[in-house]
Specification:
The chain has 296 residues and is of the alpha/beta class. The chain has three domains: 3-84, Arc Repressor Mutant, subunit A (Orthogonal Bundle); 91-162 and 267-292, 3-Layer(aba) Sandwich (D-Maltodextrin-Binding Protein, domain 2), CATH 3.40.190.10; 166-264, Periplasmic binding protein-like II (D-Maltodextrin-Binding Protein, domain 2). Helix content is 40%, strand content 23%. Helix 7 links the parallel strand 8 and strand 9 (219-223). It is globular. One of its GO terms (cellular component) is protein-DNA complex.
Length: 296
């Protein structure tokens, strides 16, 4: 059983809900279900009893939980101790970001990190909107602070750093421009500017093709850069969704950012290649968590 599968099992054993487990780990419910089924096949017994109303641990599942939980904590503690056991942190760490506020935090973290580890240099660059994890896979980046969801088997998802309310970006003359808020169902009233390149699950979360009630959302032009998205919205080619905070960083007189009253947040977190985790990467993550007040 791989470490990620153990994490999925222990989280489900705590939450007893596939949806909450998937949300907590930033993976799809199908990924959780597949991992549990794989474990049950390997063990030869059911770990959970599933009904339409509830999920409960079987006796075998309870035993596995009780046996695995302390061992899992020991593994995590051992990794942490090994990472800090007198090893010097040198070389270069390449860190990416998406939104401007993510970039601001990375710059602050880089300054704090250099003060702690003067032998290590931080290189910072923007992550392309259309290529969400490609620079991690090509090892042009070691770590990035970008939007969830990231449901890729070779990518490790770290903690959420920002959870931002969502807004609809509309032209200044749009009927919604004067409203205090919009709803998710309002997405059906204008074409939506979309992004070419990201995986379907990412697009479905940020730029859905249907409203919660099932009404189709018309797809407008597709582009690969955020400034192009804003230009297309300004030209009346459609609307788009983003974090409310974007209006403070990408303000334009021809655009209005209207908050949603019922949409899920836009979550930004840390991601890295599972096979590329290093001492300095973990130290930089710790620096970011220290800056944001996360004690986890």
């Amino acid at each position: 059983m791989e470490l990620r599968d153990i994490e999925i099992f222990l989280t489900l054993a705590e939450e007893l809900h596939f949806g909450r487990t998937a949300e907590r780990l930033h993976v799809s419910p199908a990924r959780v279900s597949q991992a549990i089924k794989k474990q049950e096949r390997g063990i030869g017994a059911e770990l959970f009893e599933r009904t339409s109303r509830q999920v409960v641990l079987t006796p075998v599942g309870m035993q596995l939980r009780d046996d695995l939980a302390p061992a899992y904590r020991q593994i995590q503690d051992a990794i942490s101790r090994a990472a800090t056991a007198g090893q010097s942190i040198t070389g270069v760490l390449r860190v990416g970001f998406s939104a401007a506020w993510c970039g601001s935090l990375i710059v602050q973290a880089a300054d704090a990190f250099r003060a702690r580890h003067p032998g290590c240099e931080i290189e910072i660059q923007e992550v392309p909107l259309h290529n969400r994890v490609g620079l991690l896979r090509s090892r042009e980046l070691d770590l990035q602070l970008t939007e969830f969801p990231v449901d890729e088997p070779d990518i490790t998802n770290g903690p959420v750093i920002f959870s931002e309310p969502r807004a609809m970006v509309v032209p200044a003359g749009h009927p919604f421009a004067g409203r205090e808020s919009v709803t998710w169902e309002d997405m059906a009233h204008s074409p939506i500017i979309t992004i070419a390149g990201p995986p379907a699950y990412w697009l479905d979360y940020h730029l859905p093709s249907r409203t919660p009630a099932g009404t189709p959302v018309e797809t407008g032009a597709a582009t690969v850069a955020w400034q192009e998205v804003l230009s297309l919205v300004s030209a009346g080619k459609g609307v788009c969704t983003t974090a409310v905070r974007a209006r403070d960083y990408y303000s334009r007189p021809d655009l209005v950012y209207v908050p949603f009253s019922d949409a899920p947040t836009v979550d930004f977190g840390l991601h890295w290649l599972a096979a590329g985790e290093t001492v300095k990467l973990r130290a930089f993550v710790r620096t970011i968590l220290d800056l944001t007040g996360d004690q986890g």
